[in-house]
Amino acid sequence: MLDAFKPTWMVESLYHISPERLKKNGIDTILTDLDNTLIPWNNSIGTAQIVEWITFMKENGISVIVVSNNNPKRVSIAVEDLNIPFVAHALKPLNRGIKQTLKRFNLKPSQVVMVGDQLMTDVWAANNCHVKSIWVKPLVKTDMLPTRVNRFLESLVFKMLKKKYPDMNWKEDID
User: Following DSSP, what letter does each residue of 49-60 receive, concatenated?
Assistant: First the structure.
């Protein structure tokens, strides 16, 4: 059961993920969480830095799709200037949102990676769908109440994972 929460990779932030290393692993599409992964949870729009990162990924043949538990209105406003597609009401950690995204965009699990800041939702959902995952540190230190509960549970799960897998460490990029 513990392995359900084990990320494929642990990377400092979304901005550290390189398209070259993704391609080396057969990945051409990033499914990304929205809040505290792509943008801070308390921000309604993307930053210039994220626009540059998405543009860089696209220029290097990597598609970016938001898969969020948020409602469609919130996600739509957040990604409007980013010019990327999204799936809202993903219900992570259930596999609904990722499976819907795979079907809608005709993607295979082997060609995508789910990037998110939470073991208890993003990584678990990816593992439920047999999709690789990248666990990133949250963009900001604050969270909404439900996420704070998840963070507490996440800290306990991570301690158990570290005990079982002592080589689990934050890195600058995948591999």
Answer: HHHHHHHHHHHT
Q: What is the CATH code for 2-164?
A: 3.40.50.1000
Residues whose CB falls within 8 Å of the CB of residue 105, separated by 6 or more in sequence, listed in order = 29, 63, 65, 85
Please classify residue 145 by burial: count the beta carbons closer than 10 Å to its beta carbon, then call 0-12 exposed, 13-18 middle and 19+ buried. exposed
Query: For residue 155, which amino acid is it?
Result: S
pLDDT, tens digit, 9 for 90 and up, residues 18-60: 999 999 999 999 999 998 888 876 676 667 788 899 999 999 9
Q: Which helix (H) or strand (E) holds 32?
A: strand 29-32
For residue 18, report the phi and psi dihedrals to the nearest 5 degrees.
Answer: -100, 140
Q: For residue 37, give Cα distances in angstroms to 24, 67, 73.
A: 23, 11, 18
Query: Cα–Cα distance between 43 and 142 in angstroms, integer?
Result: 12
């990304």: which residue's tokens? Answer: 32
Beta bridge partners of 65: 31
Helix (H, G, I), strand (E, B) or coil at 75: helix
Are the C-beta atoms of residues 87 and 96 closer than 8 Å to each other?
no
Task: Give residue limits of the domains in the chain.
Answer: 2-164
**What pLDDT does 6 receive?**
97
